[in-house]
Structures are given as structure tokens and as C-alpha cells.
Amino acid sequence: MNIKKINIMLGGVFPKEFPFSNLWCGVDKGALYLLNNGINPILSCGDFDSITLEQRKEVEEKSKYCKVKSSEDLTDAEFALEHILELFKEVEEIDIYGATGRRLDHFFGNILLLNNKKYQQIKIRIIDDNNIITVAKKGLTIFESIEGYKYFSIVPIYEDTLMTIKNSKYEVKDLMLTLNRPNATSNEFKSNEEIKLEVSNNVLVLYSKD
């Protein structure tokens, strides 16, 4: 099956809006949330400890593939990514929903996955109702504004990251980013111009709404 893009629904705070398609991986109660919204996941996975046995049976029956996690060696998100890459080897983009919410430990774990070298050939984004989070790799990245998202921020992952930004409201050249000072947040897009970002290390890029 030649699938280039797939979505993941984790079990955090569920989004109010999300794409309607069957190219979804549901994780634990995220799979049940998809079913309740009329979507049969192409893949469901997890240990399913957050849903009842009856609900789990429904998930297993209505998903094309179902993978059960038997140990805690991997986080739920990583377990899902591993099986997506195993089943759909042509995938190039993965959007993750339900990754933010009350559990900050889960949230930070999901953020770190974005920079995991195992997934560096795939464009991965974390999306909720107010933010999109992704990684810009070392070197030059060109990205466009997204309707509804007024702001973007650059957050360093590594110490002493040199950054140049062009075509944004606040342009900088050779700004040194450090881990103890958030000095590249709340920048703004300028009309519909493409942002040119050049960095000496991988960084997080966050799109945000008001």
C-alpha cells in the first residue's frame, strides 16, 4: 500500500477539528475517539489500558491492523511510529494529534520524538487546536505561513545555535540561540512571503494562534 501521509491520534486532549480520512493510526483511547467520530483507523495500537474490554474489541474489529504493546520499553507515540514505518514503508509525512494536554511528561516525550534520528527522513508535526510543532533541520529551511496562525517561534534544541531569519516581521542575522534564554519567540509572518530560516543545528518551529 503506497501511503505517503498518515495521521496519529494519541490519547491526550483531543482536537476539535481534524482531517476526515481513513489514513489514521489510533493509539489507546485515541482509537476509540476516531471510531466515535466515524473513522475506522487503518492501524490501532497500544496496551489499551485506558478503554474497556468491550471497547477494545470494537477497536480491534474495525481497524485494518491492530498492534498490542506488551511492554513499556516504548512510549505510546514511539510504538505507533515504529509500526507505521514497518507497515507503510513509503510514508513521508506524519501528523500527530492528541499529543498535548494534562500530562506534561507525555508532552515532552512527544516533543523529543520530533528530533529522534530514527525519524529524520520523515516530516513529523504535532498539532493541537492552537499550535503546530515541527523540527527545522540544520541548514536552510523555507516555510510558508499557515492560515489562522499569526505567530511562529524558534526554540533551540542544542546549545549555541546560530540563526538567521529573513522575510519575517522581525529579521535577524547570526543570532546565537541558547537553551537558557527564549529570544526567538513570537515572531510574525509578513503577508504571504516565505520565511527563510538558516540554523547551525536542528531547532523546533512552533506555529501559534492568538
UniProtKB/TrEMBL annotation:
<dbReference type="InterPro" id="IPR007373">
    <property type="entry name" value="Thiamin_PyroPKinase_B1-bd"/>
</dbReference>
<dbReference type="GO" id="GO:0006772">
    <property type="term" value="P:thiamine metabolic process"/>
</dbReference>
<dbReference type="InterPro" id="IPR036371">
    <property type="entry name" value="TPK_B1-bd_sf"/>
</dbReference>
<keyword id="KW-0067">ATP-binding</keyword>
<dbReference type="InterPro" id="IPR006282">
    <property type="entry name" value="Thi_PPkinase"/>
</dbReference>
<dbReference type="Pfam" id="PF04263">
    <property type="entry name" value="TPK_catalytic"/>
</dbReference>
<dbReference type="InterPro" id="IPR053149">
    <property type="entry name" value="TPK"/>
</dbReference>
<dbReference type="GO" id="GO:0005524">
    <property type="term" value="F:ATP binding"/>
</dbReference>
<dbReference type="GO" id="GO:0030975">
    <property type="term" value="F:thiamine binding"/>
</dbReference>
<dbReference type="InterPro" id="IPR007371">
    <property type="entry name" value="TPK_catalytic"/>
</dbReference>
<keyword id="KW-0547">Nucleotide-binding</keyword>
<dbReference type="GO" id="GO:0009229">
    <property type="term" value="P:thiamine diphosphate biosynthetic process"/>
</dbReference>
<keyword id="KW-0418">Kinase</keyword>
<protein>
    <recommendedName>
        <fullName>Thiamine diphosphokinase</fullName>
        <ecNumber>2.7.6.2</ecNumber>
    </recommendedName>
</protein>
<dbReference type="GO" id="GO:0004788">
    <property type="term" value="F:thiamine diphosphokinase activity"/>
</dbReference>
<feature type="domain" description="Thiamin pyrophosphokinase thiamin-binding">
    <location>
        <begin position="139"/>
        <end position="205"/>
    </location>
</feature>
<dbReference type="InterPro" id="IPR036759">
    <property type="entry name" value="TPK_catalytic_sf"/>
</dbReference>
<dbReference type="Pfam" id="PF04265">
    <property type="entry name" value="TPK_B1_binding"/>
</dbReference>
<keyword id="KW-0808">Transferase</keyword>
<dbReference type="GO" id="GO:0016301">
    <property type="term" value="F:kinase activity"/>
</dbReference>
